[in-house]
Amino acid sequence: MLKVGRGANAPPFIVMDVIAAANARQSALAPGDPAVIRMEVGQPGTGAPAGAVAAAQAALRSGDPLGYTEAFGRRSLRERIVSHYRAWYGLAIPTERIAVTVGASGAFPLAFLAAFDPGDRVALTSPFYPPYVNILTALRMRPVILEAGPETRFQPSVAMLEALDPPPDGLIVASPSNPAGTMLHPDELAAIATWCDRTGVRLISDEIYHGLNYDSPIASACSVSGSAVVVNSFSKYFSMTGWRVGWLVLPDDLVRPVERLAQNLFISAPYISQVAAEAAFDCHAELALNVARYRRSRDHLVRALPAAGFSRLSPAEGAFYLFADIADRSNDSAAFCARMLAEVSIAVTPGVDFDHARGNRFLRFSYCGSEADMREAGERLAGWR
Ligand SMILES: Cc1ncc(COP(=O)(O)O)c(C=O)c1O
């Protein structure tokens, strides 16, 4: 028998199975049946902004060979990312510290391999974005799960970190987070970053939902720590999921290690996507319309869902998710979500993906679909028990 590596045991990302079930339900519907409302997916219903598409089309027509770029990306894109940090956060980041990656997903293995060794303990709160745990585990690193609840808005706190003995080697934070849609407010992020620096813990900050914060200002970990690794992407605010382009802001000591890894693992992010991403920085007016739409959908759902019996919702501060505690309705969120899909054609994601211990009593609503669909979802659920 041929050997199969342990990395092949990585668990599935269950939301992908939910997407398949929703597709199957949609194709089984009779003509005239109401369509499936997609609240399981975490990707904007909109495509890339028009200016990004136009830039890609121009590049295709130009005869440019669209070859590899340097491992850290096109210099002009890295400079636009630097300008973005100046404009959004008032920060002056040297261009050398910016690495363009194949989405945030491509950034994680680079960051984890550069910062940690097999066996290292990396803390994160549950509920969490499943690939953090699955990638760490595939790389033989050890996730240390901190159970978080509504008292800390499903985010870590310094008290939770201080209770870890010995302290971990690393900490992953995400604000706004997936699946809870909650934030670490600037003072909370600063306190955590200071604790990490003092304790010698490498902070990895996933900032992919920056720009999708509705009530409070947002801070980047690179404004409070010189040793943090910041992960970001064009997938969410910039609405460019399929273009597969993201970036890292690296601390000085990890620049060269990550560059060597990137050269070997990916060579570079797709050239055409880098061209489009650069142009996306000129599209804030169009992107602001998306954000306004998410905000209206959120405002609607935080009223409609409690009226429909989902009264325990995470505070909807950012991203486009609401995490609902459904313990008063079910102790089997996978079965509950399957029944919702079968009976009212609404696809949502059971919490088991995000929290192995408590996910059976949670589910995640995603509200990045059309505004009309989000209103219709409230109506369908109002009459459903
Ligand atoms: C918290 C979080 N980080 C990272 C990613 C991966 O994003 P990308 O499309 O940039 O690979 C996602 C995607 O849903 C996410 O929710």
Provide an overview of this structure.
The chain is of the alpha/beta class and 385 residues long. Helices cover 40% and strands 14% of the residues. The strands form three sheets. It has a seven-stranded mixed β-sheet with strand order 2-8-7-6-5-3-4, with helices on both faces. Strands 9-10-13-12 form a four-stranded antiparallel β-sheet. A hairpin with a 7-residue loop joins strand 9 (312-313) and strand 10 (321-325). The longest helix is centred in the last third of the chain and has 24 residues, at 284-307. The protein starts with 13 loop residues before the first helix and ends with a helix. It binds pyridoxal-5'-phosphate.
How large is the radius of gyration?
A: 21 Å
How would you classify the helix and strand content by structural class?
alpha/beta
What can be said about the biggest beta sheet? 7 strands, mixed
- Per DSSP, what share of the residues sits in E-state strands of 2 or more residues? 5-15%
Quick overview:
By secondary structure, the chain is of the alpha/beta class. The protein contains twelve helices and 13 strands.
Topology:
Elements lengths: L13 H15 L8 E2 L11 H12 L13 H15 L8 E4 L1 H13 L5 E6 L3 H9 L3 E6 L10 H5 L7 E5 L11 H14 L2 E5 L22 E5 L12 E4 L2 H14 L5 H10 L3 H24 L4 E2 L7 E5 L7 H12 L1 E2 L1 E2 L11 E5 L4 H12 L3
Parallel strand pairs: 1-11, 3-4, 3-5, 5-6, 6-7
Antiparallel strand pairs: 2-8, 7-8, 9-10, 10-13, 12-13
The structure holds pyridoxal-5'-phosphate.
